[in-house]
Design a protein that fits this description.
This protein is α/β, with parallel strands linked by helices. The chain has 9 helices and 13 strands.
Length: 252
């Protein structure tokens, strides 16, 4: 099947694909991740999740996309400093309005409204949510009919963040906003060592269109990347050796 390249999208048949900016990964994915999809990138601390996100946004800047980076774990100054050390400078794109970095304070009750309003009103081509883990674990505030509409059978007086229905509410609300916006999104999640799930919450992998796992092998002093799931894409499940250097992650 012919692969048709455009400036920022590779098309295989009728599937439009968005390049990740990760050297070697787009080739494994027949040109990139499906346009308007949600890809979950999971891994333990230090595995390169945020770096993956920097490269995804940097590629968007290069291709003229409008991009949004939502962060809950790190302050924006620290993210920009780390990205700069890897050779990705977003300052001019931020000043021109092409890229927006937004820190979400999980202690604010209106965090969901702030996040969803920004996603839906910004007309973004690419969105990063780094990470979804704090959102799936934070207290839920029942003040949005759209949020609670699917939970008619749940006793709201007894809702707690540790229950499966509440985590599902959180994640459905977030994923629905990303789907509605028609953006191409990358969402990160912490992945505890030894976990049999693909995310810390154990649900995100079922809601996402794609799942990429970043892992560490201290014994062999190696980093690995594995594509476990990608909608409308034929791909290998074999873990790929990667390295992180100037420019970010690349498959070796």
């Amino acid at each position: 099947m012919a692969l048709i390249q455009t400036d920022n999208i590779a098309t295989v048949g009728k599937i439009e694909r968005v390049k990740t900016g990760i050297k070697g990964l787009d080739e494994l994915l027949s040109g990139g991740i499906p346009k308007e999809s949600i890809t979950l990138v999971s891994g333990p601390p230090g595995s390169g999740k945020s770096i993956f996100c920097y490269q995804f946004i940097a590629k968007g800047v290069q291709e003229g996309n409008k991009c949004l980076y939502l962060t809950l774990d790190k302050k924006i100054e620290g993210l920009l400093l780390q990205a700069g050390e890897l050779g990705m400078n977003f300052q001019s794109a931020i000043e021109s309005g092409q890229v927006k970095f937004l820190f979400l304070n999980i202690n604010k009750k209106l965090i969901y409204e702030t996040m969803v309003n920004e996603i839906l009103s910004g007309n973004y081509d690419r969105v990063v949510l780094d990470s979804i883990t704090p959102l799936s674990e934070m207290p839920i505030y029942i003040n949005n009919p759209e949020f609670t509409g699917e939970a008619d059978n749940i006793d709201h007086d007894e809702i707690s963040t540790g229950t499966f229905p509440v985590r599902r509410l959180h994640l459905h609300y977030i994923m629905n906003a990303l789907e509605t916006s028609k953006c191409t999104a990358v969402v990160t999640s912490e992945l505890p060592s030894g976990s049999t799930n693909y995310s810390r919450d154990g649900l995100s992998e079922f809601l996402a269109d794609g799942v990429i796992i970043l892992s560490l092998d201290p014994t062999m002093d190696r980093r690995k990347l594995a594509v476990m799931k990608m909608r409308s894409t034929k791909h290998t499940l074999k873990p790929q050796n990667i390295e992180i250097g100037k420019g970010g992650i690349q498959i070796i």
